[in-house]
Design a protein that fits this description.
Number of domains: 1
Structural class: alpha+beta
Number of strands: 6
Shape: globular
Number of helices: 6
Helix content: 25-40%
CATH class: Alpha Beta
CATH topology: Nucleotidyltransferase, domain 5
Strand order of the largest sheet: 1-2
């Protein structure tokens, strides 16, 4: 069989095409506490939907959860739907899933309101400050995950230092 680069169609070379929905790269899924300290990190391919990794992210928490305290889970529009809400409630969280403009509207109506969703975006930004993680050069998923855990430990140490110093 001929290589794809040697095939000709009407005088033009046929290029290898990327299938629709297929992306190169990886995506990190985070669960953070109210201050942005990472509690769970899962790495998947960039073509995976966030909703498909929700249960894994919630199950991979590295610390013990408090038993007698109601905990809320704030999520964005990507986690709407019965399967996501069911997964959140099965793990004893109170789901708070806001649409894109709801927090902005609430901030306009109530100046005391504090937005919650930005905390995860800030955590992603803190991970991106580690230049080794900004562009993924590691071939092995385990190596990249280990670097993410090291960065998460540094972020957690910095956050604890602010509280107890």
């Amino acid at each position: 069989m001929a290589q794809w680069s040697k095939l000709r169609s009407h005088g033009r070379l046929l290029a290898e095409t990327q299938r629709i929905g297929e992306k190169k790269g990886s995506k990190r899924h985070l669960l953070v506490d109210g201050r942005g300290v990472p509690l769970s990190i899962v790495v998947t391919g960039a073509n995976r939907h966030d909703i498909s990794q929700l249960e894994i992210v919630l199950d991979e928490i590295i610390i013990e959860r408090p038993q007698n305290v109601q905990q809320s889970l704030c999520a964005d529009k990507g986690y709407t739907g019965n399967p996501a809400i069911k997964a959140i409630k099965e793990r004893d969280y109170i789901p708070h899933i806001k649409q894109r403009g709801e927090e902005i509207e609430e901030k306009k109506n109530n100046p005391e309101f504090k937005a919650r969703r930005w905390v995860v975006e800030a955590a992603h930004s803190w991970f991106n400050r580690f230049r080794k993680l900004l562009v993924r050069y590691e071939k092995l998923n385990e190596t990249y995950l280990a670097l993410l855990h090291l960065a998460a430990a540094i972020i957690a140490f910095r956050k604890v230092g602010i509280i107890y110093v």
